[in-house]
C-alpha cells in the first residue's frame, strides 16, 4: 500500500479503483451539466440587463427605469421617494393620495373603505387597487401598486415592461430613499415598507434614516 500526500491511501483493489473511477466520471458529468446550466442562466439574466440598460424607450424617448415608468408606450411617470406615480388620462398622480376614476383624478383618505368606478361597472377601493385605462385593475401590495403591462399586472421590483413584454429587472428592488416616508396606512392596516440599503426607521419611525 502506497502512502500519498495529505494522508490519502491508494488501495490495490482493482474493483475499488474501477468503482472510484466510475463515481468520479459520474460526478464530472454532473459538474459539466451544472456548469452548463449556470452559463445558460447567466446568459438569460445578462440579456435583459443589457436590453434594459440600453434600449428602453417610451414613445420613442429613451428613459431609465430607475427614474420613471412607461405606460402604454405613451406616458412616462416619475419614480420619486420610493413611489412610482401612475397615469390618469395622461397626467401622473401619487397613488397613495389620489385615485383615477373615469379619467379623472380624485383624492381619497384611505382611513375607511371608499369605492370608485373603473370601467363601465367595476367598483374598486383605491387603498387596495389602482385603475388603468378605465378597465384594468391592478392590486396594491402593502399600499404599493403593481403596474400594468398589456393586460397583466406586474411587480416593478422584479420586472420591467418593455412595450407589452415583461423582462427581468436587472437592478435592485424598489426601495424608499433617505428621508422618504416608508410607513403607509389604509383603512385596515399600516405597513412598514423597505428602506434602501443602509437605511432604516428614523427617530420617529416613519422616515428612512441612516442605520
From TrEMBL:
Residues 57-104, 118-166 form the Endo-1,3(4)-beta-glucanase 1 carbohydrate binding domain. Pfam families: Carb_bind (PF10645). Keywords: Membrane, Transmembrane, Transmembrane helix. The keyword Transmembrane helix applies. The chain crosses the membrane at residues 30-50. It comes from the Eukaryota. GO terms for molecular function: carbohydrate binding. This is Endo-1,3(4)-beta-glucanase 1 carbohydrate binding domain-containing protein. It comes from Mycena chlorophos (Agaric fungus).
Amino acid at each position: 500500500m502506497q502512502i500519498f500526500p495529505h494522508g490519502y491511501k491508494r488501495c490495490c483493489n482493482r474493483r475499488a479503483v474501477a468503482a472510484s473511477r466510475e463515481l468520479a466520471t459520474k460526478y464530472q458529468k454532473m459538474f459539466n451539466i451544472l456548469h452548463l446550466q449556470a452559463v445558460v442562466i447567466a446568459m438569460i439574466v445578462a440579456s435583459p440587463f443589457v436590453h434594459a440598460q440600453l434600449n428602453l424607450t417610451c414613445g420613442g424617448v429613451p428613459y431609465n427605469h430607475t427614474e420613471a415608468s412607461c405606460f402604454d408606450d405613451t406616458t412616462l411617470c416619475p419614480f420619486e421617494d420610493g413611489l412610482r406615480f401612475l397615469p390618469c388620462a395622461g397626467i401622473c398622480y401619487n397613488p397613495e393620495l389620489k385615485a383615477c376614476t373615469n379619467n379623472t383624478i380624485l383624492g381619497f383618505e384611505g382611513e375607511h373603505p371608499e369605492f370608485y368606478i373603473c370601467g363601465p361597472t367595476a367598483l374598486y377601493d383605491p387603498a387596495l387597487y389602482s385603475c388603468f385605462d378605465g378597465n384594468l385593475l391592478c392590486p396594491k401590495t402593502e399600499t404599493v401598486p403593481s403596474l400594468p403591462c398589456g393586460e397583466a399586472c406586474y411587480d416593478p421590483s422584479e420586472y420591467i415592461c418593455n412595450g407589452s413584454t415583461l423582462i427581468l429587472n436587472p437592478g435592485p428592488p424598489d426601495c424608499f430613499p433617505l428621508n422618504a416616508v416608508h410607513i403607509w396606512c389604509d383603512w385596515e392596516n399600516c405597513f412598514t415598507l423597505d428602506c434602501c440599503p443602509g437605511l432604516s426607521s428614523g427617530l420617529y419611525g416613519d422616515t428612512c434614516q441612516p442605520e
